[in-house]
Amino acid sequence: MGTGQHILTRKTPSAMFLVMTIDDGGEDAVREALTGLSGIVTTVSSRVPEATLSAVVGIGSAAWDRLFSGPRPAELHPFIELTGEVHTAPSTPGDILLHIKSDRQDLAFEVGRLWTASLGDAVTTVDEVHGFRYFDMRDLIGFVDGTENPTGDDAVAAILVDAEDPDFAGGSYVAIQRYVTDFTSWNALPVPDQEAAIGRSKVENIEFDDDVKPTNSHIALNVIEDANGEELDIVRDNMPYGDIAGDREKGTLFIAYSKTPAITEQMLRNMFIGEPEGNHDRLLDFTTAVTGTQFFAPTTEFLDDPPP
Ligand code: HEM
């Protein structure tokens, strides 16, 4: 198995997400920039060794064949748009994802700036989000986010492609969605109703027992199992983002790493179509997905020496 990119780093105070499309004729410059990314991270982090700094790059389905010859990751396909009775998860353009994490916003900014400069006019940035860690690891909706993420070996097993796709073992699938939240409505909802929407208590962050947890709560719809009753996990690295003023966009940048996109897709179906159908995630009544893109994050060996 190849070496995975630095995905499983701890939650940092700052994260940036750049989604780009490749302009016509930009393929060679992108291939060159992919091999240069680790050097950029090194030159920035070597000056502030005490600060965590990492950058993960993902490649979209259509871009894969434009950039590389040879085999492609077995399950790489565009983000699947979902239209439920009430809510929609759109599929939006994106050939390249750069996910930068750091203790310091200046270092994250510097990596993004240098890498974007190295790409020149080969790409167009279609979404750029500067996320920040909110106190207590809470989302802007006030709930602690990330508690049930797998850790240690379980996290590695959850995100890395293995023997099922030997050419791409050590890589990961990564999906992102940017959500815009209506905080006027959310904050008008009494806390017990907010807790029912999530399926956990707000202050103490305790999961509700199954007999009181509503079937349309975020937790109930996102705990899924395989045919043997084993829970299926993804690793989420969501970040709050946004501007404060009333009508400016703010919410959650959802990002999930997994060994197969099928797990994230099942969760999204449960949330948007509902389980059973029509029983959609109550959280979606307050927060709207405005982007949705699927990528594959290859191994470091692949990025250092991509096939022609
Ligand atoms: C759990 C927030 C979107 C999958 C949670 C929790 C919160 C939360 C507060 C409970 C604590 C935790 O375990 O992290 C949000 C917000 C979202 C969002 C604010 C977007 C606005 C999504 C999406 C998915 C997802 C799109 C899947 C495609 C999960 C999973 C859990 C979870 C798997 C853990 C369930 C468990 O094992 O208990 N989320 N989430 N979330 N969320 Fe989300």
UniProtKB/TrEMBL annotation:
**Annotated SUPFAM superfamilies:** Dimeric alpha+beta barrel
Cofactor(s) named in the record: heme b
For this protein, the record's InterPro entries field holds:
Dimeric_a/b-barrel, Dyp_perox_C, Dyp_perox_N, Dyp_peroxidase
Asked whether the keyword Iron is assigned, the reply is: yes
User: Taxonomically, which superkingdom?
Assistant: Bacteria
Pfam families cross-referenced by the UniProt entry: Dyp_perox_C, Dyp_perox_N
Q: Which keywords fit this entry according to its UniProt record?
A: Iron, Metal-binding, Oxidoreductase, Peroxidase
Q: What protein name applies here? A: Putative iron-dependent peroxidase
Q: Which organism is it from?
A: Gordonia humi
